User: Fold this.
Amino acid sequence: MIRKKLSEEDKIENNSRKNHNNSDVDIPDYIPKNKYVGFVNGAIISVGDNVSEVAQVAVEKFPNGPLVIKYNGPKKKPLEYCFMSLTDLQCLNHMSV
Assistant:
């Protein structure tokens, strides 16, 4: 009886993994804006302010599950970087008397 139950659960889990594409998960309307949402097998498992919070909860609850983290808000602009190279640093010595 136990083997039958375990084999049924295993079949259900394998079918859900095969039939569900995690990248196509939609964020429901009741999730607050500007939050990160973690999904495992299409189910919401955590909501947080940053990716590390969501990932930590996901790893604790579902260490082997396929994790998808999405941002519920406008797409963020990529960061622009400016580098400056100073070969000769010029400083003045200030001494207080």
In short: The longest helix spans residues 2-19.
